[in-house]
Design brief:
It is found in: Nucleus. By secondary structure, the protein is α+β, with helices and mostly antiparallel strands.
Length: 699
């Protein structure tokens, strides 16, 4: 038997049903016996929504009013009545089992499953399997319109059935017409058989993903704006009703190994992906989530891995993964198992633990733990911030993709330099330099769509792209690292910049017009470094203010004395020019130490494109031991500053922050030894900065 089901929400109707997150307000259904071709009673139930504000389209199409809906039952009660009435009708027809049949996918996947998930009650098993009448109709009548273009009305017109919707109440006509279409498909001329229903997965399945696996780009989306504590199960719940591929949720991490509020999600096919895109700006709790298209390459970059150790760890499927952070470096497997205790047994004992290590074998303080059920995982999460040794331990929900991303992509990556350099050469190619000066050879784009990328800007520029300097397109990001709607472009000359500003000003990009202004390299630098450029002139960025000039921003000369224990490299292109006349007179060299017995040199650096606001592009080096620094100081007879990037300044700390919280924040990074403190020569102005309240400088 089939139960023909039709529904409507308080918002959009038709192809956009469920895309606006509005609640269900109407359910109409009727039982159909496919063998005897008999039907049960037609039932119509109004549903009381939490928000009775109906859209204009809903009022016009359905004829329903808030007053009438206010007297209806809530959704959970209506679904209980649905099950009872269907069972009663089946008994009358002498049947016991049934499958739902709806007009398309939207009512089941985009309305019922998401709404019941948000309201925290379960749907009965019948809602996890259904027939899509549009697909069945197209299979029976291949010459009919494409599935995506089908409606109840077009299918009825194709069969020559009556299409006067005004004769019946809204919903009643739709169900009666669907039943008539089904009987036409069951006629001797067609003899259609309903054999392969659509299915909805009960739960998300975890699993590993190999980098050699082929991922169709038409099945991947990027979700942005997720709460930082979101797990893969939370994301799967957001997409409830859609079928996510096994191991198809990959949480994105930032350079510090922390979640950045984004995730890549892989669905079983392109149809499910297209439905997922309709959930753009739907809500997870109080936050709205942005949903965009992504590529298979992006998914594999985050979720793919090839390590045998990780593959073996993740081979136990359908396990709950917990990430532990802040472990003492001396912690052993026995210590971790003892910390978790008997109330949350680890799957496989020691085999259910995976310690994260740096390429040289040193522990990072992170570990992943497997639990066989949700109850054990919840018991483990209750130990969040409990003490192990002398450290408090943080525990979070994790995913298989996060395990691969942390262990493989962050810590087990190939070294940037395979062997030690014999000559003193730049460790990485010097990056391009941003133009300075008052020559107006740049243009500023304002009002860009937030989804615009470099390719969109180049297409917007048209023929003028030939006059852009190499690496001359700079996207301006806000403090959250997202596009601000501004961009700067370096042109080959001021005349070219003037022509572009005249030609492209207020030209359309997607659905927005973009303003284009001519500007100078100096003005561009101010904005890229966090300043503002408006009609009233330039406002300097925070790091340009005289009292906020940290000593690590000083310029470095190219001449250097190379001591026996250290190699010297002056990355002149990496640092902005000095901001004080005194610093340019006698700038000291920087010391980069290469370990004597090392076979390979590993470096971690973060490259921004463009440089983020209030942060110049810097490169981190392996710290030199005190002896090497002292030797360099003796040889050059000049005061020495630490290597570029060694000093960081923290703003916005809570007033009750202590040293313990700061060290925990930088957990996993090496700090310079105390001996550096005596080598740093500070001016009174710089010393006042370092001693300012609510701000710390970590050495």
């Amino acid at each position: 038997s089939l139960v023909v089901l039709f529904g409507a929400t308080a918002g959009a109707y038709g192809a956009k049903l469920g895309s606006d997150e509005r609640e269900l307000i109407l359910l109409v259904w009727q039982v159909v016996d496919l063998h005897s071709k008999k039907v049960g009673t037609l039932h119509k139930s109004l549903v009381k929504a939490d928000n009775l504000d109906l859209s204009d389209q809903c009022r016009e199409v359905s004829g329903l009013t808030p007053e009438g809906l206010g007297k209806a039952e809530p959704l959970d009660r209506v679904l209980q009545q649905f099950s009872q009435l269907v069972s009663s009708d089946l008994k009358v027809l002498g049947r016991s089992s049934y499958t739902l049949c709806s007009d398309g996918q939207l009512l089941i996947r985009q309305v019922l499953h998401p709404e019941t998930s948000k309201k925290n009650f379960l749907l009965s098993d019948c809602f996890y399997s259904f027939y899509d009448l549009r697909k069945e109709f197209h299979t029976c009548y291949p010459s009919s319109a494409a599935v995506k273009d089908q409606t109840i009305k077009t299918m009825a017109e194709y069969l020559g059935l009556g299409t006067d919707e005004t004769e019946e109440d809204f919903g009643v006509w739709q169900v009666k017409t669907m039943v008539a279409i089904i009987f036409s498909m069951l006629s001797e001329s067609c003899n259609h058989i309903f054999t392969e229903p659509e299915t909805v997965k009960y739960k998300y399945e975890t699993g590993p993903c190999s980098k050699s696996e082929t991922v169709d780009s038409e099945t991947v989306i990027r979700a942005r704006g997720l709460p930082w504590q979101s797990s893969d199960q939370d994301i799967a719940r957001f997409f409830k009703g859609l079928n996510i591929a096994k191991g198809g949720v990959a949480l994105c991490l930032n350079a510090q190994g922390r979640r950045n509020g984004e995730a890549l999600v892989r669905f079983v096919n392109s149809e499910q992906r297209d439905l997922a895109l309709e959930r753009h700006k739907h809500h997870m709790g109080s936050r709205y989530i942005e949903v965009y298209k992504a590529t298979g390459e992006e998914f594999l970059k985050i979720a793919g891995g090839t390590s045998n150790e990780v593959a073996q760890f993740l081979s136990k499927e359908n396990q709950v993964i917990i990430r532990m952070r802040g472990l003492p470096f001396t912690a052993t497997q026995e210590d971790v198992l003892g910390f978790l205790g008997p109330e949350c047994p680890v799957t496989g004992g020691k085999e259910g633990l995976l310690f994260v290590k740096y390429p040289d074998g040193r522990p990072t303080g992170d570990a992943f733990v497997l639990f066989s059920c949700e109850e054990y995982a919840q018991n483990a999460l209750k130990k969040h911030k409990e003490i192990l040794g002398k450290r408090y331990i943080e525990l979070f929900r994790s995913t298989a993709a996060e395990v691969q991303q942390v262990v493989l992509n962050r810590y087990m990556s190939t070294p940037l330099i395979p062997t030690l350099p014999t000559p003193i050469i730049p460790v990485i190619p010097p990056p391009y330099t941003i133009a300075t000066g008052s020559i107006r050879d740049c243009v500023r784009l304002r009002g860009l769509p937030y989804t615009a990328g470099i390719d969109d800007i180049l297409e917007f520029m048209g023929d003028a792209t030939a006059d852009i300097k190499p690496h001359g397109v700079h996207m301006v990001l806000n403090q959250q690292g997202r596009p601000s709607g501004d961009a700067f472009i370096q042109m080959k000359s001021a005349d070219k910049a003037f022509m572009v500003a005249q030609k492209c000003h207020k030209k359309m990009m997607k659905d927005r017009y973009v303003e284009v202004f001519q500007c100078s390299g100096e003005e561009m630098n101010f904005v890229l470094m966090g300043g503002t450029l408006n009609r009233s002139g330039l406002s300097p960025p925070p790091c340009k203010l005289p009292c906020l000039s940290p000593p690590a921003y000083a310029a470095f000369q190219t001449a250097a004395v190379i001591p026996a224990e250290a190699a010297l490299y002056q990355p002149q292109a990496l640092l902005p020019t000095t901001r004080t006349p005194q610093a340019s007179a006698a700038a000291p060299p920087t010391v980069t130490y290469y370990p004597a017995q090392a076979a390979q040199l590993y470096m971690n650096y973060t490259a921004y494109y463009p440089s983020p606001p209030v942060s110049p592009t810097t490169v981190g080096y392996i710290a030199a031991p005190p002896g090497a620094v002292a030797a360099a100081a003796t040889a050059t007879h000049t005061p020495i500053l630490p290597q570029p990037g060694a000093l960081v300044r923290m703003q916005g700390l809570p007033y009750n922050t202590g040293m313990k919280e700061i060290l925990s924040f930088f957990q996993g990074y090496q700090y310079a030894p105390d001996d550096y403190n005596g080598l740093i020569q500070l001016s009174d102005q710089a010393r006042s900065v370092l001693q300012a309240p609510k701000e710390w400088v970590c050495l």
